[in-house]
Amino acid sequence: MSEHPSTSLSGRRFEEGHLLDAARAVFHAAGYSAAQVADIAQRAGTTKPTLYARLGNKEQIYLLVVQREAEVFRGWIADAYEQGSGLRLSELARIGMDPLFRFAAERVEGFDLLFRGEKTGDQQGALRREVVSGVTEQLTHLIKLRQKNFGPDLGAAADALAAACVGVALQVCEHTIDHGGDLDAARRVAERFVENAFRNLDFDALPR
């Protein structure tokens, strides 16, 4: 998303990214229902009229915030998965798990709004499902690329396996956050779980 500057009534100039950062912080702290445009404006050091003119109403601002987080996460996924098709299984598991746990650690507010928004009262479930579906599709593609180099051919089971991996990553990540755990240690647990799942699959019994 481009970040074109705008000018507040006080003459200060604001980047769109700065305004969205302020909005993300307010939505994360207060939840969607309780958050007010005035709170976002105050956090950003601007005015409500400037915010309305620049980003729109509260619902539009929230959608812009979540869309930006989704774009960042998709970019991290694409960058990571681009290098994965020729890797060993243990490295593939690392590549598959790393973007989500990195996102949770480095963009805490964005992770909560994008993946845990129902706990703050937002209604952006469709976008969340779209992101998870996109990650699953990319991981399916990565698994199929690896099959060409190492086998075996999983057939239709590749998509189900990818969905299981994404589900495990999200569950482990959320559990760790809820219990104040170490995300880096949790990532290693998820990696090992996924790696062992691959190794122990009865490929002959999988649907083709």
UniProtKB/TrEMBL annotation:
It comes from the Bacteria. The keyword tRNA processing does not apply. PROSITE patterns: HTH_TETR_2. Residues 36-55 bind DNA. Residues 13-73 form the HTH tetR-type domain. Keywords: DNA-binding, Transcription, Transcription regulation. This is Helix-turn-helix domain-containing protein. It comes from Streptomyces broussonetiae.
